[in-house]
Amino acid sequence: MPHPTPSRTRRVGAALVLAVASSLLATSATTAATSAGTAPARHTGKQGWFTSWATSQQRLSPTPLREQSLRMITHLSQGGDAVRVRIQNTFGDTPLTVDAATVAPSTGKSAATEGTPRALTFGGRHGVVVPAHGEVWSDGTRLRTEAQGDVAVSLSVSGSAPAGRHDSAFRTNYLSPAGSGDHTAEASGAAFTEKTESTLLVSAVDVHNPRLRGSLVAFGSSVVDGTGSTNCGAGCERPGENLRWTDDLARRITAELPAGRRFALANAGIGGTTSAATCPRTGDSLRGLDAVSRLERDVLALHGVTGVLYYYGTNDLADGCGAEQILASYREVFQRLRAAGIKVYVTPITPRPGYSDQNNRARHTVGTFVAKWNDCGGTCDGVLPFDRVLADPVMPNSIAPAYDTGDGIHANIAGQQALADIVSLPMLASSARH
Questions:
Q1: pLDDT of res. 24
Q2: What pLDDT score does 147 carry?
Q3: Inter-axis angle of helices 323-339 and 357-371, to 10 degrees?
Q4: At 72, phi and psi to the nearest 5?
Q5: Which of 1, 241, 312, 348 is deepest in the core (most CB within 10 A)?
C-alpha cells in the first residue's frame, strides 16, 4: 500500500483533533432525558467532565412559569474550559419547554452578566422539551471559568409550566415578568425585574477540566444545604457570599492543593430531610426526599463523583427514628455508593439541645458505629468529626455558643468555617481516580 503524503497526514490529524474536541463538548446525557425510576449511566469523569456546582430539587414552585425568562446564579467550586448544565423537571407532571438557554460569567451581585451570554444547545438544538419527571443535560459550551467563579444560567420557558425548585438558594436569583418572552441573550439584567431566593429548574453545572481528580458531593439536610451560612451574629446577615462549609472547603482545596490534585465540590443538601425513609414524624412535604430515595438523581447521576461527604441523622432523631433505622439507611446508602466506586466520608450526628435522653442514646450508638475503626466498621472510608467541632465543651449535647445561630441546631459563619477547617484534605485525596 502507498504511504500517505505529509499533507494528507496533516489533514487527517487535524480532522481527528477536531473530532475529539467535538466529542468532548457533545458528550452528555443531553436529550436522552431520564425519567423517574430510570437509572442514568454512571459518569466517571474519564472525558474530563466534573460536576462543579449542584443544588437538589425538592418541590414545585407555587407560581408556574409562563412565557418568561429566568437567570439563576451558580457558584463553581472549580473552573475549566467549557461548561454544561442540567435542567430538571423532577416534580412536574407535564413537559417543560425551554426555547433558549445561555451561560455567561457573573459577578454574583446582580442579574447582569459579564460579557455576552453564550448559547447552550441540546443535541445541537437551541431548545429542548424536558419530559414530565425527567431531566436533560445540555451539550458542552466553550466558556473559560475559574474556581469560585459565578456563572449565570438563563432559560426561556414557553407556554405555562410549574417550575421545579430548590427552596433556599441563600442568594438572589432573577426572573423576567410572566409573558415577557426570551431575554436569555441579554447581558443587561434590566429585563429581570423579579427576584427569588430559590433556585428554579437548574440543578447542576459541569466543567470540562481533565486536571481535576474527581468531584466530591456533600449529601445531607439543612446543615449541608447552608442554613446558618449567612449568619454573622445577632441581627447580621450576609446572603450571597457563599459561606457554607462546603464553599469554605472548596476554597481550601483550591488554596492548599496543587492544580493537578484538586477536586470539584457539589452540594446536595435539602433542609429538613432524613437519611431513613421511615421516620414517623417526617412531614408530607419531605416524603420521598430521604437519602435512600434521592441518592440516584442527586449524587449518582452527577459526573466524575469520587467521594461523598455524608452529613445526615439529626432530623431522623427529631422525627422519631431510632438508631437501628438510621443505621439501616446508612448501610444501604454506603453500600450503593461504594459499589459505584465512590468513597464515603461520614460525620457523626451533631449536638442538638432539644434531644431527649433517648435521642442522645441513639446519637451515641450511631456515633460509635461511625467511629468504629475510623471507617464505620469497614462500611465507609473515613470520618468527618463535625460533632466534636461543634460541641460545647461544657455542655457537649449543645453547640458551642460561638458557633450557634441561636437555634441550637445550625452553625453560623464562624462554625461553617470551623467545619471546613477540620476536614483532612489528604483523606479526601485518597478518593482520587488515577
A1: 45
A2: 98
A3: 30
A4: -105, 135
A5: 312
Blockwise average pLDDT, block size 10, the chain, 434 residues: 42 40 44 37 72 98 96 98 98 97 97 97 98 97 98 97 96 98 98 98 98 97 98 94 98 96 97 97 97 98 98 98 98 98 98 97 98 97 98 97 97 98 95 74
pLDDT at 432: 84
* Number of residues written out for the chain: 434
The whole-angstrom separation of Cα 407 and Cα 350 is 14
HEC per residue, the chain: CCCCCHHHHHHHHHHHHHHHHHHHHHCCCCCCCCCCCCCCCCCCCCCCEEEEEECCCCEECCCCEEEEEEEEEEECCCCCCEEEEEEECCCCCCCEEEEEEEEEEECCCCCCCCCCCEECCECCECCEEECCCCEEECCCEECCCCCCCEEEEEEEEEEEECCEEECCCCCCEEECCCCCCCCCCCCCCCCCCEEECCEECEEEEEEECCCCCCEEEEEECHHHHCCCCCECCCCCECCCCCCCHHHHHHHHHHHHCCHHHCCEEEEEECCCCCCCCCCCCCCHHHCCCCHHHHHHHHHHCCCCEEEEEEECCHHHHHCCCCHHHHHHHHHHHHHHHHHCCCEEEECCCCCCCCCCHHHHHHHHHHHHHHHHHHCHHHCCCEECCHHHHHECCCCCCCECHHHECCCCCCECHHHHHHHHHHCCHHHHHCCCCC
- All three cell numbers of 303: 459526573
The per-residue pLDDT for 255 is 98
d(CA 230, CA 218): 18
Q: Pick the closest to residue 413 from 423, 398, 402 (CA basis).
A: 402
H/E segment holding residue 388: helix 386-390
